[in-house]
Design goal:
By secondary structure, the protein is an alpha/beta fold. It has a single domain, classed as CBS-domain (Roll). The protein is built from 5 helices and 6 strands; from the N terminus they run αβαββαβαββα. Strand 5 and strand 6 form a beta hairpin.
Length: 142
């Protein structure tokens, strides 16, 4: 199963927006992360976890912080035509739960660990069906 089959749209926000506004937008769009842009270029990602660890846990005031103050700046991407297993391996290696998805260098979406998990049953079923066929066995159904 290819990444492009399970990727999600990337919601975005400008880097000077207040964290409270970003949290409200994330809730409205029902997403747990957003791309952060500066002058039209992606400069980071912000997640619910960033908010928890960088604002709530240390007791900072969310009304005084901009998204650029808490965003993750390291962006990790993977090409859309790669297999979702490659995405899982890349996430594990990078210690992240999401990757930006690119098509010839242009960002076209994101893939998350949750998205992979939701589609895993289809991947497993496809392998179960194709594996006996590839070995020359035939399958019959009642």
């Amino acid at each position: 199963m290819y990444i492009r089959e399970v990727m999600q749209e990337v919601a975005g926000v400008e880097d000077d927006v207040l964290v409270t506004s970003v949290a409200q937008e994330m809730q409205r769009k029902n997403v747990s992360s957003m791309a952060v842009f500066h002058s039209g270029c992606i400069v980071g990602m912000v997640t619910e976890r960033d908010m928890l660890r960088k604002i709530i846990s240390p007791g900072k005031d969310p009304l005084s912080l901009r998204v650029r103050d808490i965003m993750s700046r390291e962006l990790i991407s993977i090409e859309a035509d790669r297999d979702i297993e490659d995405a899982g391996a890349a996430m594990e290696q990078a210690g992240t739960r999401r990757l930006l998805v690119t098509d010839r260098g242009r960002i076209v979406g994101k893939i998350t660990a949750d998205g992979i998990a939701r589609n895993l049953r289809y991947l497993v079923a496809r392998r179960m069906v194709s594996s006996p066929l590839q070995s020359g066995m035939s399958m019959t159904y009642p």
